[in-house]
């Protein structure tokens, strides 16, 4: 049984989309597997229509694909795809974050972003991959939103979601979530200090995990499975 998550009031489609994204990130919906909107709706105890609409949104985002007369398949991201996405994100995110170095908008929200950094450390300590992913998304997209370019924020958010199975999973398997949490603290400190060079260096290093990863999803799934005594 898929565990139902709780969210603030939204449209049913938006609620279903948040649910599905969380299930994709957690690995409950596996790459290469086909799922029907009807079955997912029954598991989540919601109506079929909003779930189907949400799954079609994920098709548009490149996270699922339609399988005629069967349902929706979770897209598997190849290593080459991950390298391409890492390159695009580096080209877009690094200069964007550099623009925010010393920005009054970041300083005005310093306490908010510091609280998000605390979430990283809490999630790392609990080895909670989903909470870590949520904090990661909130931190990076929250900062990018300060640039008032919603298309940029949305596009980078989509790229991040497409590589959901990798990166953070690998950090967890390698026991490096706490180190990644510290990376985020260092990025925030550099932004607040207005140190453009440090922001550039830290962001380039931060995005390298997608290039370095040589895992496939079955590798990750096996690595995070509970082991017997």
TrEMBL record:
Q: What keywords sit in the KW lines?
A: DNA-binding, Transcription, Transcription regulation
Source organism of the structure: Leucobacter aridicollis
The residues covered by the HTH gntR-type domain are 10-77
The answer on whether this UniProt entry bears the keyword Transmembrane reads: no
Residues folding into a coiled coil are none
Query: Which protein, by its recorded name, is this?
Result: DNA-binding GntR family transcriptional regulator
Q: Which GO terms describe its molecular function?
A: DNA binding; DNA-binding transcription factor activity
Q: Key word Transcription present in the record?
A: yes
């Amino acid at each position: 049984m898929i565990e139902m998550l709780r969210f603030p009031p939204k449209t049913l489609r938006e609620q279903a989309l948040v649910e599905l994204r969380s299930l994709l990130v957690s690995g409950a919906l596996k790459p290469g597997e086909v799922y029907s909107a009807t079955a997912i709706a029954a598991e989540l105890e919601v109506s079929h229509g909003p779930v189907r609409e949400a799954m079609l949104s994920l098709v548009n985002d490149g996270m699922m694909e339609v399988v005629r007369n069967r349902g929706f398949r979770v897209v598997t991201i190849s290593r080459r795809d991950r390298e391409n996405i890492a390159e695009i994100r580096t080209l877009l995110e690094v200069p964007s974050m550099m623009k925010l170095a010393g920005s009054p908008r970041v300083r005005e929200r310093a306490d908010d972003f510091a609280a998000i950094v605390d979430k990283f450390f809490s999630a790392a300590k609990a080895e909670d991959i989903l909470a870590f992913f949520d904090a990661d998304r909130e931190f990076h997209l929250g900062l990018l939103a300060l640039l008032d370019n919603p298309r940029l924020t949305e596009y980078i958010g989509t790229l991040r979601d497409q590589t959901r199975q990798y990166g953070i999973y690998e950090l967890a398997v390698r026991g490096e979530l706490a180190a990644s949490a510290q990376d985020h603290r260092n990025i925030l400190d550099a932004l607040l200090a207005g140190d453009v060079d440090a922001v550039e260096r830290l962001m380039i290093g931060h995005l390298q995990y997608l290039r370095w990863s040589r895992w496939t999803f079955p590798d990750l799934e096996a690595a995070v499975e509970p082991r017997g005594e």
